[in-house]
Design a protein that fits this description.
The protein is α/β, with parallel strands linked by helices. The chain is built from nine helices and six strands; from the N terminus they run αβαβαβααβαβαβαα. Helix 3 links the parallel strand 2 and strand 3.
Length: about 250
């Protein structure tokens, strides 16, 4: 139960979120609410769901973020679509793998509750891809931001779009990578006609750096991908250097 002071803080929070979502709705611009740590996520989910019911009547404007390293998220996704269908609004979903794995496991051990995190990376990969397939097969009522730097998941997603007859530029499907990371993925997807967004953290350095560090930690979990990206960056740097020298 909340005390009076806590209830007021929650009301302020809801009011601020509502202001942002209302502005996004008026401008026709999607707004993606990021995922949080396990301890806070239920509260975030409730507020985001309220915003969806209010602003997603015509199409998905408000998106919730699901961290698929949590073993309960696929069931949550299915239940959220059922709720959206019953109440008559569109479900906006951003799928990511997750950013708090080590911290969540440590907290579950410290406070003696079951870990909310999948046991292995392979399980998380399976859950992520399964969720992408579920959303793709329900696009009549959903929209997707596929937030991943994982090349295998992206290959799977674009092949699935082709198999299901989903146009490359269908506004219900976006791919998203962090600004400054996996440009080889983003640029190639965009060049082929897919919808791509680059995720740009903005704010004070002390607030943004922990976020960027978590993203880098996520990428290192993709075996060999960071070293391959570094190789591609060096190759592109050399290409530009050669091009510049050749134009003299």
């Amino acid at each position: 139960d909340l005390n009076v002071s806590e209830a007021k803080e929650i009301d302020k929070f809801k009011g601020r979120v509502d202001l942002l979502c209302r502005s996004a709705h008026e401008k026709g611009v999607p707004i993606l609410v990021d995922a949080e740590e396990y301890a806070y996520q239920d509260g975030v989910d409730r507020v985001v769901n309220e915003m969806m019911q209010k602003y997603n009547k015509e199409r998905a404007i408000v998106y919730n973020t699901l961290q698929m390293y949590r073993w309960d998220r696929y069931g949550f996704l299915v239940a959220e679509l059922e709720k959206a269908n019953q109440k008559g609004y569109f479900l906006g979903i951003k799928l990511v793998r997750g950013a708090y794995m080590e911290k969540e496991r440590a907290l579950s051990e410290k406070y003696n509750y079951p870990s909310p995190i999948n046991s292995t990376k392979e399980e998380t990969d399976k859950e992520f891809n399964k969720a992408v397939k579920f959303v793709m097969n329900n696009l009549m009522n959903m929209s997707l931001f596929c937030g991943t730097h994982n090349e295998e998941s992206i290959h799977m997603a674009i092949h699935l779009m082709n198999d299901l007859g989903i146009e490359k530029d269908d506004k219900r499907v976006f791919f998203s990578q962090l600004y400054g990371m996996s440009d080889n993925i983003s640029f190639n997807l965009a060049a082929q006609g897919y919808n791509v967004a680059k995720y740009l953290p903005y704010g004070p350095v002390e607030s943004v750096m922990p976020y960027l560090i978590r993203r880098a930690q996520e990428n290192t979990a993709v075996a060999g991908q960071m070293s391959r990206e570094l190789m591609l960056l060096k190759k592109e740097k050399q290409r530009r250097k050669n091009s510049k020298n050749g134009s003299r």
